């Protein structure tokens, strides 16, 4: 946790920690008050039960504080979500197709791969579509996840800032072999990516220039 390689790590982990911290404070406070009241209003100390009338300030406090906390969680979540929706105009577009039970990636020239190759420090927009049922495109190391739904065009984007290979998972139960629906995203320095892209594209042209979409390059 708190490692990974995209431009969203700070925002997503930040919201996560913020909510975790609030939850921890509430857990401790509620546990403390519970034990405190059990002792304070113990029957041995208070043989005669008494009615307690309301306290306006207490009621104001327990309304205002949770409202502020919930609005805070919403605010940070919304700010982060908005960044994930605003794709930079210079993003490289890769079409991602999901089907039971594999991922396929299509580059602008028709190159098709079973692994997602991307250049480091460049915005990549993944246009998501499904050939059959609901899937979910999930790269935990980049903190991005989006449902892939038939007949609905979803997208997400990211900037991978660390060279390496990271898991891509399907995060929506999609049938018998859902748990095997894994792929990898490989992040390469930009010139290395460009070399790979040129080489891989040559192969599809050599194999069949009239039918590039059906050529699989590993
Ligand atoms: Cu799936």
SSE layout and pairing:
Elements: H1 9-40, H2 56-85, E1 92-99, E2 102-106, E3 112-113, E4 116-119, E5 123-130, E6 135-139, E7 144-148, E8 154-159, E9 164-170, E10 182-188, H3 190-207, E11 216-217
Parallel strand pairs: 1-5, 3-11, 4-10
Antiparallel strand pairs: 1-2, 2-3, 5-8, 6-7, 6-9, 9-10
Task: Give a verbal description of the structure.
The chain is of the alpha/beta class and 218 residues long. It folds into two domains: 9-85, Helix Hairpins (Orthogonal Bundle), CATH 1.10.287.90; 92-217, Immunoglobulin-like. The protein contains three helices and eleven strands; from the N terminus they run H-H-E-E-E-E-E-E-E-E-E-E-H-E. The strands form two sheets. It has a six-stranded mixed beta sheet, covered by helices on one side. A hairpin with a 5-residue loop joins strand 2 and strand 3 (112-113). The longest helix has 32 residues, at 9-40. The chain is elongated. Copper (II) ion (CU) binds next to loops.
